[in-house]
Amino acid sequence: MRTPQSCRLLFTPREAKRPEHPTLNIKEVIKVFGVLELRERLIVKFAVLGGMRPGESFALRRGGVRATCAEVKERLYRGDIDTPKTGQIRALCRTFGRVIAGS
Q: What pLDDT is stored for residue 1 in this prediction?
């Protein structure tokens, strides 16, 4: 059983090695967009440019998508429609219009 005293020992030292998280540069992103069909390109753009999680973009419905905004009401998780990961409806408006326009 953990006691409050033992929980204080659970921390990551500053000198601990951090995992590397590779990212795409703009040329690589453009290359990815160029090889995809319209549907797949739009889903990837939702993730890369709009910040959507994959399950959220696959669960989007027409009623939740507008010209400048998408309302995330649900997600696809392990083949089932579920509530968003945070449990709250999210409205993605900042870059969404550019994602749709550039498809």
A: 56
More confident position, 34 or 69? 34
Q: How far apart are CA 25 and CA 100, in angstroms?
A: 21
| Counted domains in the chain | 1
Q: Is the Cβ–Cβ distance between 50 and 92 less than 8 Å? A: yes
Q: Would you place residue 99 in the very low, low, confident or very high pLDDT band (cuts 50, 70, 90)? A: low
| Contact status, residue 82 vs residue 73, Cβ threshold 8 Å | no
| Residue 20, in any domain of the structure | no
- AA letter at 62: R
Residue 14 domain flag: no
